[in-house]
Hints:
Elements: H1 3-25, E1 31-37, H2 44-47, E2 54-55, E3 57-62, E4 65-71, E5 78-101, E6 111-120, E7 125-132, E8 139-159
Antiparallel strand pairs: 1-5, 2-7, 3-4, 4-6, 5-8, 6-8, 7-8
Bound molecules: 2-acetamido-2-deoxy-beta-D-glucopyranose (2 copies).
InterPro entries: MBF2 (IPR031734)
Pfam families: MBF2 (PF15868)
Amino acid sequence: MHSYTKMLLGAAQKCIIALILVKCIVAVDLQYSEIVTVTSETRYVVQYPNAALTIFSKNHYVGGQYVFSSGKRISGDRLILNFEDSTQFTKGEDVEALIRYPAKGTDSNIITQVEIYAAVSTEDADTFFVDGGINKSYCEILIASNKTNYLEFEMFIYGY
Ligand SMILES: *[C@@H]1O[C@H](CO)[C@@H](O)[C@H](O)[C@H]1NC(C)=O
Ligand SMILES: *[C@@H]1O[C@H](CO)[C@@H](O)[C@H](O)[C@H]1NC(C)=O
């Protein structure tokens, strides 16, 4: 085998091992709604009309993939939570997912940044804090998309 190829393979293996370690270390202490389909009666903003929503910035990544982010990494912070889920639908549905961290009360970490990589079959998708958030020790996040055939997301919460 060419030594350069060997080097690349070696690096890839190290990455995979590092990824497995990260997934093992990061505890998943969440309250999670699952990805649910919603109607004009059941969507979050209709059920909680007084909730103050803070929208995440939205960047188109590639194809139907988006990166939603809020806050900024600081030196000394670290990954405190990694979570992913995905669902497919037989037709375009209006969907939401509600994620609360930690499951109850507050955590000892202060949140610096939340990043969500999401894949949907539409441009009508957004992410919001509906409670807590950056510089707080808890957060509740709403991921919403209309007329999508699938929703796949991976979330990273950083803090110190
Ligand atoms: C989805 O549709 C609802 C109702 O028309 C609208 O309020 C909302 O802004 C749309 N987009 C998202 C991402 O929820
Ligand atoms: C979080 O705290 C940092 C440092 O004090 C500040 O610069 C930033 O604006 C705060 N962000 C929010 C969303 O409160």
